Amino acid sequence: MIIHSLAEVTGTEREVRGPLWTSRRLLLAGDGVGFSLNDTVVHAGAELEMQYLNHVEAVYVVEGRGELVDETGQTHPLEPGVLYLADAHQRHTLHAHTEFRALCVFDPPLTGREVHDERGAFPPPGQAPAR
């Protein structure tokens, strides 16, 4: 059985910060469960363009408000209780209207130190993460 707490990972190498977000990596590839789980906070006013070319990502909103613009240009409101899944590696843009917190599941699992590259993607599994 694996037990991790948010308090336990905060301030450790499992807490990864980007310029517009903070990701607390609760489950990682090294935990051996086949997916990773992040508790991610996006700063109010942030706009993040992403396209996970090497991963499938599910995002479940737990706090805050924002919107997702998909690759067709359609806008989807985001608020607590909403889930979105980028299951076909779709390009998307997240606009955080307030501080925004979500639980994010990745398959294949993240190793822990990944940050978005210039395309908004994480590196393929087995490739050294950008630092």
In short:
Pathway: Amine and polyamine biosynthesis; ectoine biosynthesis; L-ectoine from L-aspartate 4-semialdehyde: step 3/3. This protein is mainly β and 131 residues long.
Written overview of the protein:
There is one protein chain. With 131 residues, the chain is mostly beta strands. The protein has a single domain, classed as Sandwich (Jelly Rolls), CATH 2.60.120. Helix content is 3%, strand content 42%. A hairpin with an 8-residue loop joins strand 2 and strand 3. 21% of the residues are buried. The mean pLDDT is 90.
- Helix content class: under 10%
Query: Strand order within the widest sheet?
Result: 1-2-3-10-5-8
Q: Strand portion, in percent? A: 35-45%
- Total DSSP E strands: 10
| Rg, Cα atoms, Å | 14 Å
Organism: Amycolatopsis nalaikhensis
Family: Belongs to the ectoine synthase family.
InterPro entries: Ectoine_synth (IPR010462), RmlC-like_jellyroll (IPR014710), RmlC_Cupin_sf (IPR011051)
Pathway: Amine and polyamine biosynthesis; ectoine biosynthesis; L-ectoine from L-aspartate 4-semialdehyde: step 3/3
List the helices and strands and how they pair.
Blueprint: H1 6-9, E1 15-17, E2 21-27, E3 36-42, E4 47-50, E5 56-63, E6 66-70, E7 75-78, E8 83-86, E9 92-96, E10 100-107
Antiparallel strand pairs: 1-2, 2-3, 3-10, 4-9, 5-8, 5-10, 6-7, 6-9
Question: What keywords describe this structure?
Answer:
131 residues; mainly beta; Jelly Rolls; six-stranded antiparallel sheet; four-stranded antiparallel sheet; 1 helix; 10 strands
